[in-house]
From TrEMBL, chains A, B, C:
Keywords: Ammonia transport, Cell membrane, Glycoprotein, Membrane, Transmembrane, Transmembrane helix, Transport. GO terms for cellular component: plasma membrane. The lineage of its organism: Eukaryota, Metazoa, Chordata, Craniata, Vertebrata. It is a multi-pass membrane protein. Residues 67-434 form the Ammonium transporter AmtB-like domain. It comes from the Eukaryota. Belongs to the ammonium transporter (TC 2.A.49) family. Rh subfamily. The chain crosses the membrane at residues 21-42, 79-97, 104-123, 135-154, 166-185, 197-215, 227-246, 266-285, 297-316, 322-339, 410-431. It holds the Pfam family Ammonium_transp. Functions as an ammonia transporter. May play a role in the elimination of ammonia in the gill. It comes from Anabas testudineus. This is Ammonium transporter AmtB-like domain-containing protein.
Length: 487, 487, 487
């Protein structure tokens, strides 16, 4: 029976890839749903509301500059660039899937962002007095974070799914993320400023599980399109560099004001710098001529940022950050050389962008580093006030100790992994249905399936010549036509 | 007579495109004029002046952070990126006009910015005590805004004009903009934080009118160069994404401090997100295989930002922003499919980048949305203080009411359109003169006319081989040469 | 003897380019050294330390927003983009050295940044109470500045050296920079906010001297790879524009809070704008058809930013900035047309990116402008407080006068040049050793030496056809395979 179904599914495929009904239907319905839900639930936070002026007077807040907007907006814009240009261009490396890489990244981010505002709002920003979600700058940042986890997942299935499948994947991904985030941050009270666990661990294993469920035994039929081109590799470097440069903003965007944000920036930058060097080391060692592999430079150099996410605002110390980056550069690059082929061969997990190496493994390291750093926290290192504010030992958690906190951090990592794997298998099963218009095995990684692709470079040079030859002739010709019109 | 003239004009063209005298002459003279005018008129504002230190003490301003610089500089830099990278790369899509797209965009922005500082300064920042224009961070932002309107106009004539024509177009465009802006914002007292009317409506119709005046009946002779290439479309996505990501900064850059800026950011981001989804919907529906068209993704996704410009800092409400974005994504994409061909066929308006779809129509929607939102403003929604500060009901306009304001907004839109169309026809007439070195009909959209273009990709692979073959041979050869020199 | 050695060196070369041992060794050892040194010396500054919270209370600082982080972080991120994307993509113009341009730029920046934190820390941020270097946001900015000088030097030798040589060059470059910076800023007490002298003059002449020491008489053997491609020129514009746009942040990043930063921004932007126009003027005049040369637009347009670096925070006045930019656009473009060929032909200095035109000459102009502007400073122009704070006439320098300061500025320029030339000759001599695996003369500017380069564009179109032809056939085939597995 299963075989019959999968047989049908495959037979339908070549005809199926026309998403002219399904894609517009999904986008229209969901966007209208967003408008309705926003109308019912979403309002401006006090800081985005003109009443803020009266409010400030009442609470004698000295000045506009105290508005959280000025603490967080620059970081928000950096995160924003990471989501749309960073992730988008990181996925342009395939020789004929650059449109899909940057274009679908754009589509699902724009949708996911709206859905994330709602999902996270219900959990974190619901004003019980009037049942409305009050959004400010921090909600925008968190929504972009939430979207990031789905983009990581996209990296694992890049080129093998239809835009409709991506929309479904994002809808469920955002939902799972919001629940998982609430459990980890609020119930378990783990800290995760840069989202090593909440964003990267969840996103990577969510994507990998979906990729496992959608495994294509005959993917080698489109192997000819799986490589990169000289120029597409340069495009990818745009994505890599914007991710790398703005990662300090990513890890510090929602950290505590003042020293918390600055500390997160320092730790992240140092960790990233170290992983660049070790990536080069392993990449060169693994090539028999000592040549560097662009795939490693494009991805493994970012591992340090992932791994320092949780501990970014802790007292990891500068040398600690360097050590984390050092190790993750090594782990991540070795992952590209040995783990990715292993996963595909033995576990039937095809990982197009190697998210397991860039996000998966470093995220686990990051979770562990976070747990250890938290467990080792002391009043002498953080100061009395500092310890409380950094780990937020307030309210119900007044009696927490660093040691306990370490345990909670570890628990948080486990929850993230469970949600990622469990959710991925569930959603993967749904995406197996033969109704989503995904491409045939021999037509993956091919923009021509979902995009109008322009003619190729080949066709220019002759034209240019033609143009030069015809110049005088056409000029004369055109004169008569125009003169004719002037009468 | 007219026919004879146009006949001559056309005959001259092929010889004419040498701008070796005209371009340097224009740039040199105008740059020297700028230096002189800046010397006479432009000084630093108090906040950019070291006297600021004494001033602060006198006015006991608590701290440097109160300097407007820290409220606006991050937004300024985002706007800056939109002007040079955003607009610049958005115009690189043509297969052989990428140099002209990004290069001339760079040139006219750098000139326009200087001229805008003067023109806007005379109207808005003139210190009557000493007759000097005092410039600070807000002047820089407004000058970039002013430049934006000319870059929009450039989009309509991209590839069909000479750099000299562009300089003239910019000179007049900036001048008209400054007058129109003064009338709309100061005399009519319309609010337009994001410049839907002042920037986009004016810019689009200014460019379209010029394009109408410069209509080329035989443009199909260079149709072979009007298409895009796979990689040039990816370059264009860089422009699209930077415009899209930083649009919230564009609409909030000169909004009121604090809640005004934050509200503008939220509204703009939501509107943009919605237009991404509806652009995909229409793009897919309009293709018989349901395939997406890159042109739509590159442009129509931005319509939401244009349309929410005027109302960005009003209480549009999050769902209101989504509705605006939803509609404009639809309108703009349909514009690319149906309106652009119509304009060319029946109104003799050739619109290279489709600015009518991306800026023109959404700007009109934006003006109307702004008028309606203003007219519906209530004290309960804005708060007593909020209403006054948002709509600036102070000074001569102390007695304004929201209803009246709505009327003024509508009036503002009309003024913007009149200036755009009227000014465009005027300037277009000037640009028709046969002295500007514009390209022949069969040579439009071709960088070779104004740029030294490097050889083509074709020529590499053989070289590489050659290189490998010759390696040992050359190495030996070179040794002897060098040894010879050592004697 | 020398000839024998050089003969050996050349013979070895073709085998030598395998850096599989040397590159990983250097990166590993140096990164481990960094970790150890950071462990011994580097700690968080008070503003990045949680004790900050207690500290604030003690010193009743009103709010987190007073943290220097919020004054400088947006500028830091802009500088950061200039280092990695700006310089990186500026070096992608060569038709087959884009990987090396952006990739090695990435590697040496990541290493140089760490080493700079230590070197500059020892000179500027050492806390003598505990012998630790306390790093905050300003240290990060200064480290990026320090890296910039080495990237400028890289531009002179682009394509002709191995990554190992680059690492050595960076190690010594950073060291020299830190000493030179200490002498110029602290001992001589010259002001140099934008680093015209400290960064650009030093970096340019450091690189040029190295290039002189590594002169290759037979470089013409790889002349076929020295040109650019249409698309690689567009990539380079990404670098150019991000450098150009963010240069105001570069020159203002460490300027005085408030008016100092704003003034630096205004001066820099104006100077840059003027140099764009004059670059176009000269570029067009120097071409017999009046065509523009992309090389000039990509580089000379930035000269204005270099030249205004030292005087950026002085009262240069807006028109003064325009004049500086005007002159440097001319000088720099003429440099590309006449000076670069002269240097290569007569002084045996091959300057791949023309750093002498973009950084060298404008930096000297900048140093002189700075000296003159300082010497002409008056209390009436700066205000009593302003003069003292702008030139930091405090402590040991309480009795300085503007005239004296002018002299010190000039002295600073000389020191920078001496360190650049002297250091470059020294380091160049070291890099001549035949152990660094640099490429053969006929194999320079070729990524294939150090990178795994993907196949070429040529190979796609046939594949696409193949793909369409084979579609049905493969689809059927694949079904059976999968069904087979289902059993």
């Amino acid at each position: 029976m299963g075989s019959v179904q999968s047989f049908r599914k495959l037979c339908d495929r070549p005809k199926n890839t026309n998403v002219r009904i399904s894609l517009p239907a999904v986008c229209t319905v969901w966007q209208i749903a967003m408008i309705i839900l926003f109308g019912i639930f979403i309002r401006y936070s006090i800081e985005a509301d003109p009443h803020w002026i009266d409010y400030r007077k009442a609470n004698n807040i000295s000045s506009d500059i105290e508005n959280d907007f000025y603490y967080r907006y620059p970081s928000f814009q950096d995160v924003h660039v990471m989501i749309y240009v960073g992730f988008g261009f990181l996925m342009t490396f395939l020789k004929r899937y650059s449109f899909g890489g940057v274009g679908f990244n754009f589509l699902i981010s724009a949708f996911g962002f709206q859905w994330a505002l709602l999902m996270q709002g219900w959990f974190h920003s619901l004003d019980y007095t009037d049942g409305k979600i009050k959004i400010g700058i921090e909600n925008l940042i968190n929504a972009d974070f939430c979207v990031a986890s789905c983009l990581i997942a996209y990296g694992a299935v890049l080129g093998k799914v239809s835009p409709v499948q991506l929309m479904v994947m994002t809808l469920f991904g955002i939902t799972l993320y919001a629940v998982e985030e609430y459990i980890i941050l609020n119930l378990i009270h783990a800290k995760d400023a840069g989202g090593s666990m909440v964003i990267h661990a969840f996103g990577a294993y969510y994507g990998l599980s979906i990729s496992y469920m959608l495994y294509r035994p005959n993917l080698d039929q489109s192997s000819r399109l799986q490589g990169s081109l000289y120029h597409s590799d340069v495009f990818t470097m745009i994505g890599t560099l914007f991710l790398w440069m703005f990662w300090p903003s990513f890890n510090s965007a929602i950290a505590n004001h003042g020293d918390g944000q600055l500390r997160a920036v320092i730790n992240t930058y140092l960790s990233l710098a170290a992983s660049v060097l070790t990536t080069v080391v392993i990449s060169s060692l693994c090539n028999k001529h000592g040549k560097l592999d662009m795939v490693h430079i494009q991805n493994a150099t970012l591992a340090g940022g992932v791994a320092v996410g949780t501990a970014a605002e802790f007292m990891l110390m500068p040398y600690g950050s360097l050590i984390v980056g050092f190790c993750c550069g090594v782990i991540s690059t070795l992952g590209y050389v040995y783990v990715t082929p292993f996963l595909e061969k033995h576990l039937k997990i095809h990982d197009t962008c190697g998210v397991h190496n860039l996000h998966g493994m470093p995220a686990i390291v990051g979770g562990i580093v976070g747990a250890v750093t938290a467990a080792c926290a002391t009043e002498s290192a953080y100061g009395t006030e500092g310890l409380i504010s950094t780990f937020d030992f307030t309210g119900d958690f007044k009696n927490m100790t660093p040691a306990k906190q370490g345990g909670h951090q570890a628990a948080g990592l486990c929850v993230a992994l469970c949600f990622g794997i469990g959710g991925g298998i569930l959603v993967g099963a749904i995406l197996r249905l033969p109704i989503w218009g995904d491409p045939a095995d021999d037509n993956c990684f091919n923009d021509e399936v979902y995009w109008e692709v322009p003619e190729d470079e080949e066709s220019i040079p002759p034209m240019i010549q033609y143009n030069n030859h015809m110049q005088r002739k056409d000029a004369l010709a055109s004169n008569f036509t125009l003169e004719h019109q002037d009468h």
